[in-house]
Every structure is written in C-alpha cells, then in structure tokens.
C-alpha cells in the first residue's frame, strides 16, 4: 500500500511513530511534513532522529532554516521553511546540493518553497484530532513506496 495512517494520542506516540519511520529511511528520500504550528512536525522529526540513534538535542531550525545531522551512515537535513522568503538565499546557502542521493531531506513548511523543492517521496500530514493528532503518510514515488513497504510488510 502507499499510505500509512494512525491516530497519535499523545507526544510519546508521535515520537514512537518517528522511531518506526526511521527504520525505513534510505539515502535520497525527500519527506514533506505538513501541518499547522504546533501540529507535531518537529516532535515527529525528533522521533525519527532518535530512531536513527541520535542522542543530542533536536532544535527547531526556525531561523537557520536547516539543521544538518550525520547519523547511522546517513546525512539528514531537517528544514523548517516557515520563514523562508528569498529564492537567492536558497542558492547562496547551498540548499539545492543538500538534496542528493546520500541525504535524507525532511522539510517542514514545504509550500513556502514549492517551486524550488524536488518532488517528495513521502508526504506526511499531521492534524489535531481530539487531544491527539491524526497522522497520514502518502508515498508518491516508487522509491518512497519501496521504503514504506519495508515497514508494512
Ligand atoms: P510543529 O513543529 O508542528 O510546530 P512541535 O512538534 O514543535 O510542532 O510541537 C507540537 C506540540 O504538540 C508539542 O507541545 C508536543 O508536545 C505536542 N504534541 C506532539 N504530538 C502530539 C500528539 N500526538 N498529541 C498531543 N500533543 C502532541
Ligand atoms: Mg516545527
């Protein structure tokens, strides 16, 4: 299947989902992470990094726009494009080169740079529901579907 849906009742469930997703990541994967402020995008990213074995602090790259990690033989770029405005900045900061076959790129607020970003392999939506969050992941490329299948098999 090409989708994964779940209800995440609390923060611990979001972290746990991230740890599960971490097991499916391969170099080159591009993940869009959608949802309003406070939806749990950075929390999910924390869970993914934890799942990859990262033990340090995961801060929200609100002002730097991207935070790079090297974990578990992967380069992992965590983007938060909420404050992204300038296309020139994109070129100058070398963001384009960060999307490469050796790197996983996870992007919060992808719609802020829609014209510049490559097609996502996974699109994740987080939506408030009761006291928790509705989680939905859609795989939209063959590579994305293959990675997702390693989880759902
Ligand atoms: P975003 O990056 O989308 O702005 P954050 O992850 O920074 O959101 O913050 C999300 C907030 O919601 C945090 O306070 C976190 O504890 C909480 N949270 C995360 N997941 C859940 C969940 N499944 N249910 C309830 N609260 C959650
Ligand atoms: Mg965030």
UniProtKB/TrEMBL annotation:
Keyword Disulfide bond found: no
Swiss-Prot/TrEMBL GO biological process terms: tRNA threonylcarbamoyladenosine modification
Organism lineage: Bacteria, Pseudomonadati, Pseudomonadota, Betaproteobacteria, Neisseriales
Entry-linked InterPro entries: P-loop_NTPase, T6A_TsaE
Protein name (record): tRNA threonylcarbamoyladenosine biosynthesis protein TsaE
Main location: cytoplasm
Compartments in which it is found: Cytoplasm
Top-rank taxon, per record: Bacteria
GO molecular function: ATP binding; metal ion binding; transferase activity
The family this protein is said to belong to: Belongs to the TsaE family.
Organism: Chitinimonas arctica
Cellular component terms (Gene Ontology): cytoplasm
Keywords attached to this entry: ATP-binding, Cytoplasm, Magnesium, Metal-binding, Nucleotide-binding, Transferase, tRNA processing
A Pfam family assignment: TsaE
